[in-house]
Design a protein that fits this description.
The structure is a homodimer of 306-residue chains. The first copy, chain A, is an alpha/beta fold and 306 residues long. The first copy, chain A, has 2 domains: 3-156 and 202-302, Ribonuclease Z/Hydroxyacylglutathione hydrolase-like (Metallo-beta-lactamase, Chain A, 4-Layer Sandwich); 159-198, no CATH class. Helix content of chain A is 23%, strand content 27%. In chain A, the strands form 4 sheets. Chain A has a 7-stranded mixed β-sheet. A 7-stranded mixed β-sheet of chain A has the order 7-8-9-14-15-16-17, covered by helices on one side. Chain A is globular, with a radius of gyration of 22 Å. Chain A starts with a strand and ends with a strand. The A-B interface holds A 13-16, 18, 20, 39-40, 42-43, 46, 63-66, 69-70, 72-73, 76-77, 80-81, 92, 94-95, 97-98, 101-102, 104-107, 143-144 and B 13-16, 18, 20, 39-40, 42-43, 46-47, 63-66, 69-70, 72-73, 76-77, 80-81, 92, 94-95, 97-98, 101-102, 104-107, 143-144.
Chain lengths: 306, 306
């Protein structure tokens, strides 16, 4: 089952070196989830061939412009293309007012319905669920109310051993029971225990998106064992003072979060415009957490075991 | 005196073929005027090396997003770069509410002052004036209240003939009087008439920006003899019905406006996403008005006689 994230932008607030503000697309088996939507997100989607028809859920972490200034333009393009299916937007309460004031002055009547789902920062909550995934908020600490998002695959079904189906002549309608952990009684009345028929499933995969935030450890328990974490790393560690002052994180702090959370892989991003060469940030992070990668535009990262 | 316009974007509402929404920068002797500000305008400014420090006046034609969605992001970047000098924004009344609602939710306190100058569509008015230029509104007809903008150079001073300065021993402090049309009395009391000292100045140059609008002739008298006109040409002439329905213009209609206005040069733009090859539009326009050029991104066009 495909589960990956494509980076559309990963610069901090001031665009620089042809790096653009924050946006990512998570793809779960063809179902797309947009996380943040900085200016020009729709241009990057065109550039990287992202199919917008499969995008039904947008998550906005907070109301600094570099995380949402591309949203109204994207919503407008959906309208110009006569989108009909509804769209869900999860984000701070003020987002609806911002979007509506634009549509009010342009006399826009949308061809589709937007459901605004306000997100609060009192405690982590499941804000989305379907047959395969849940999305929980991660409470971050920034200059504005900010949440990250934890995408968690549901527990997978057990893997049935193909040979056992013929060996015990298991009928098709019993397969799902067995995948869910059930035993099987053969035509001759023998009970075959589930452990003799199936293998452990792959561990559910998960993706934690943590931007923007000062260094905090309060959400580490929540994301323990996460397959892939994206954590902002706006500054090199030498600029820790500036990071704290602006409620951002350094490379080494981001890497420490990944280490404490026992993450499989760390993507760093939200790079300050002051750094042209990102290897400086990458190398610092790797000193603390070796499996660090740069969340560079256009790159796609598998979530989970690879 | 430099007087030119650089195209930052000239596509219609849906970005396509790496063409972006409308924005232009007019440069008058280093003083920059931004006309419309579609999404990503600040990226294009970076790409084409536009110096933002010299930009103090922004003109927004109307409140369809493809003409202003990049504005709040640009204003935010000015703030992040600690701009101090004031900025004047000329546009529809609703623009201030749109900008302020963003800043309210991001708790932004700007480092500089924005003066919102509401523009109305009752009649053409001078909305800007400095020592060298005036800007008048052009009343257009679109689905929302829309104005174009006519940038007019003030009457130039007469050109003094260099040889006459030495011939008559004209002192430096008399030069400006003579340039303004004054005669000169020599040390020996001879009166030299101005026509013997100067040449006619170059005609004042002008730039008319007309987007978006259905085909109308009501402003032609106002722009008669304009050096360069930018007129939207969203559609080829075959799609005239669609143009009228959406209050836009075809190539041949835009060219007819340029012809009737006796313009020096026509730039066409605001191309519909349905056309990949813009030569189709260019050739149609040239049939009616030969001196037509495509307002393509990154191109700079001199205003006036070249």
């Amino acid at each position: 089952m495909q589960f990956d994230v494509t980076i559309l932008g990963s610069n901090a607030a001031i665009p620089a070196y042809n790096r653009h503000p924050t946006s990512q697309v998570l793809n779960y088996n063809g179902n797309l989830f947009l996380i943040d939507c900085g200016e020009g997100t729709q241009f990057r989607m065109n550039e990287f061939g992202i199919k917008r028809g499969n995008l039904n859920n947008i998550f906005i972490s907070h109301l600094h412009g570099d995380h949402y200034f591309g949203l109204v333009a994207l919503l407008t393009s959906f309208n110009l293309n006569r989108r009909e299916h509804p769209l869900f937007i999860y984000g701070p309460l003020g987002l609806e007012e911002i979007v509506q004031v634009h549509f009010k002055h342009s006399l826009t009547k949308l061809s589709y319905k937007i459901h605004f789902m306000p997100v609060f920062i009192d405690e982590p909550k499941v804000i989305y669920e379907d047959h395969a995934l849940t999305v929980e908020t991660i409470i971050l600490t920034h200059r504005l109310p900010t949440t990250g998002f934890l995408f968690k695959e549901k527990k997978n079904l057990r893997k049935i051993i193909a040979d056992k189906i013929t060996e015990h002549n298991i009928p098709h309608h019993k397969i799902n029971d067995i995948k869910r952990g059930g035993d099987f009684i053969t035509e001759t009345g023998n009970e075959i225990s589930n452990t003799g028929l199936t293998l452990d499933p792959a561990s559910p995969r998960s993706y934690a998106y943590c931007s923007d935030t000062v260094y905090i450890e309060s959400f580490i328990e929540q994301i323990k064992g996460v397959s892939t974490i994206y954590h902002e790393a706006t500054f090199i560690h030498e600029h820790e003072g500036r990071a704290t002052e602006t409620f951002h994180t350094t490379t080494k702090q981001a890497a420490t979060v990944a280490l404490l959370a026992n993450a499989g892989k760390l993507l760093i991003g939200h790079f300050s415009a002051r750094y042209e060469d990102l290897n400086l940030l990458l190398n610092e992070s790797k000193e603390v957490f070796p499996n660090t990668l740069l969340a560079e535009e256009g790159k796609t990262f598998a979530i989970g075991n690879d």
